[in-house]
Design a protein that fits this description.
Blueprint (H helix, E strand, L loop, with lengths): L20 H17 L5 E6 L7 H17 L2 E6 L14 H15 L6 E5 L4 H5 L1 H5 L4 H5 L2 H9 L7 H15 L5 E3 L5 H18 L11 E3 L28 H9 L17 H14 L3 H8 L3 H27 L3 H29 L5
Helix pairs in contact: 3-13, 8-9, 10-13, 11-12, 11-13
The structure holds adenosine-5'-triphosphate and magnesium ion.
Length: 368
């Protein structure tokens, strides 16, 4: 669907190889080949925090891959990470509205609840019980080195760092491993967390394995062509940073947000993510929506400057999102359907989590 190569887009990393991005991109290309050959061998877990409406960073960073994997026939789990809302705020206000909004966003983009299990983290006790043995498998020093946690602490609204914030990559290991997922479609910020999950899986298998098949797989990250989309202020597009274009925004809101997006002083538009991150991010957005090469989009706008670029992006985004927005508005009329989808997902996730916890107990010699 899109003409953006996974190896080309540097995103906001400014071309530097942050977080082992080249290795992660190479691995993602290998995984894509395996997915094409045998999608059914993949069990996929992804998810989001219910901290607001999903945005274009989510869409091109991971949601688009979720729909694609589901439609190819991979087994899918989507977690709504409600406990994780508390990592960087004192109260989970409006969380139930945000949970509904996440379910709606997923249904609107094409996730099918008959094929994909959509569930809430807090509704699955056996999943959460994995956390205690998992926490014993990572050191405080390892948790303290995590660059994404450091960045989130820097942007946090809290005066001090809670134990939950510090340990949340270990919670994510439980989120991923409870269903033995072997593939996790994520944005770039999640790569350090996935390393924690892989470490925990490996150490659990080494420590408690009995020579039979490993209890847990070491899951791979699957990056998209846009693993780090920037927001209107030039930083990572995030629900919590007031810089996001929501999938559910109106066409007028979208136009206003893009009009206010940061650009630079150079008039001619080019696509060069390493030296012109903000302008290139806008070019990329239009390219992703139109399924075109970003260099071609930049050439066409050329001397038209930021005004023409913003007009192009606005039209491309609004056109691309129009059917998703229409479907979302339609689905939003039936709240009881959304609740039913979530309840069914919670039930399925509980069955899977209890089976995994039983295996963990056996491995840890804890059946009494
Ligand atoms: P919050 O600000 O509340 O943390 P968020 O916008 O960072 O919200 P998350 O729920 O933390 O969203 O992330 C969900 C998924 O979306 C993750 O896989 C993450 O990597 C991906 N993602 C989030 N923001 C972006 C972005 N700007 N570009 C690409 N992928 C993104
Ligand atoms: Mg986040």
């Amino acid at each position: 669907m899109n003409a953006v190569s996974t190896t080309e887009v540097a995103g906001a990393s400014g071309g530097r190889d942050l977080l082992g991005m080249s290795a992660a991109r190479r691995r993602s290309a290998e995984l894509e080949a395996m997915i094409r050959e045998e999608p059914g061998r993949f069990r996929v877990l992804t998810g989001d925090r219910p901290t607001g409406r999903l945005h274009l960073g989510h869409y091109f960073g991971t949601l688009h891959n979720r729909v694609r994997l589901q439609d190819l026939g991979a087994e899918m789990f989507v977690i709504i990470a409600d406990y994780q809302v508390l990592t960087d705020r004192d109260v989970a206000d409006q969380v139930s509205d945000h949970v509904e909004s996440l379910v709606l966003d997923h249904l609107a983009i094409g996730m099918d609840p008959d094929r994909t299990t959509i569930f809430a983290h807090s509704a699955v006790p056996a999943l959460n019980q994995l956390l205690l043995p998992f926490l014993s498998l990572v050191t405080v020093a390892e948790l303290g080195r995590n660059p994404t946690v450091k960045d989130e602490i820097a942007h946090s609204r809290q005066a001090s760092v809670s134990g939950l914030m510090f340990t949340y990559p270990a919670h994510q290991a439980a989120d991923i491993l409870f269903c033995k997922a072997n593939l996790v479609p994520v944005g770039q910020d999640q790569l350090p967390h996935l390393e924690v999950t892989r470490t925990i899986a490996r150490r659990f298998n080494d420590r408690y394995g009995t020579g039979g098949p490993a209890v847990f797989p070491e899951p791979d990250a699957l990056l998209s062509a846009a693993p780090l989309l920037l927001g209107t202020d030039g930083g990572k597009m995030s629900k919590s940073r007031g810089n996001a274009i929501a999938l559910a925004a109106t066409a007028d809101e979208t136009a206003a947000l893009i009009r206010g997006a940061k650009t630079d002083a150079e008039r001619r538009i080019t696509y060069d993510p390493a030296t012109r991150p903000e302008v290139s991010n806008l070019v990329l957005l239009a390219a992703l929506c139109q399924g075109r090469d970003p260099h071609r989009v930049a050439e066409e706008v050329g001397a038209g400057g930021a005004a023409v670029l913003k007009r192009t992006v606005t039209e491309a985004v609004n056109e691309y999102l129009a059917p998703i927005r229409a479907r979302r508005a339609e689905l939003a009329r039936d709240r009881s359907h959304i609740r039913r989808v979530l309840r069914a997902g919670n039930e399925r996730a509980n069955v899977v989590a209890e089976a995994t916890l039983a295996e963990v107990r056996v491995a840890m010699n804890g059946l009494y």
